[in-house]
Predict the structure.
Amino acid sequence: MAAKSRPTSDAPDASDRVGRIREGVTAAILEHRLLPGTKLGEDEIGEIYGASRTLVRTALQQLAHEGIVSIEKNRGAFVARPTPADAREVFEARRLIEPTIVDHAIDAASPAWFDRLGRHLAEEREAERRGDARASVRLSGEFHKLVAEMSGHSIYLGFLKELIARSSLIILLYRRHDTPACGTDHHAEIVTSIRERDKARARAQMLSHLNEIEAELFLKDPAADELRLADVLGS
Amino acid sequence: MAAKSRPTSDAPDASDRVGRIREGVTAAILEHRLLPGTKLGEDEIGEIYGASRTLVRTALQQLAHEGIVSIEKNRGAFVARPTPADAREVFEARRLIEPTIVDHAIDAASPAWFDRLGRHLAEEREAERRGDARASVRLSGEFHKLVAEMSGHSIYLGFLKELIARSSLIILLYRRHDTPACGTDHHAEIVTSIRERDKARARAQMLSHLNEIEAELFLKDPAADELRLADVLGS
DNA sequence: CGGGCGAGGATTGTATAAAGTTTCGCCTGT
DNA sequence: ACAGGCGAAACTTTATACAATCCTCGCCCG
């Protein structure tokens, strides 16, 4: 009973002010309204949410643990700037974990979950139709979280939340062109496989889905003049 | 950075007081000096470490995120009490991640790492010889963390740290008999496979090692009158 | 005119104090 | 004698004040 089973993706407790701050900042980061490297001043955020610095601080610490905010001692908190190496690690971890998650999700599938999956796909299509790139990225991540919730595996869910948050940041940083269309189709295919309880196909589809997402990225590794400079100075 | 004085879980910066508190409490929990369910009062800990409640609080929040401390609103922090279901999830996650970690460790293996592995095995044998069960459990966990460090995969390392911390708690809660002897041999076998760069064998050995650890546990699931009562009331 | 140096301002880190909530003991009423 | 409620103490939570640190900008010197 260490962790309560929560039906939704995150904690939407209206009374929990720390949670509200965390949610708000997370959403702002994942929807690309806050760019990597942006300073997150404590007073500034506290002013916005009408909260004291104490609460802002705990929220920022939680986000730092999730990997989407980096805290530098005596400097403050900044939106994290994942390196290409980070990106590769994140996607490798996702390729390891998510096929297994789909497996479990199929075991735990029920009509109620099918409903939720269907509704989510509709939401994704709707955002896609509107051309709302921000919502698309957010919903794309939430799809994966939804599958993880289905699996009923709280540890995998926790890990995946972290990976998803970082992934969204990575995608927005390193995406090559604006090609957000293909993702939805993949999701629909995966849902079909889940409905038909075809584990092998679902796993394969999830894997190739992740591979395609990563393939759309431009992970300049030893390139970029600034990066080389920073690397030289850092070593 | 390769040769640190202490290969403990996190950064043991002497100047970082929050880190010291976290290390101290973690060690106390993992060595079974603090039993699950024990209240961790902020004043109490602050007194011990000569720190203000502010610092204690941040340390406890970090430990809560790691899963070895549970914070209940307006109640305080307690040593986490993983359920049998939690235990199964933890070990399943370890069976998924650790074989992959060994794979990467073999890729990154170098003489310096072999040295560290050898020294660690010696430490484990020494603790075993002394019959120091507490040190044995701690070192056993640190072996797995060491392999994860070798892999150079920071995300896997972070995940594994969480899993190891919870595992230690689980083992101390649910172990059947006192059979701490077999672990060390497995570790030595795994190191041998790493030295010989035999990935397949290393993976298999890691997997069976984890299976044996879990097999030594007694995970009473739907038993215990109290548990049933709590379940009924909770739903 | 360029570069080092120091004071000022701003921001974070830490401690302390006020406010709200829970818990435990005690007391009363039946 | 026991159940129920009231009240005080202890704790967590939140806010605010203080101290330390770092960055910026202007000044002085070479």
Notes: Residues 148 and 155 of chain B are 10 Å apart (CA to CA).
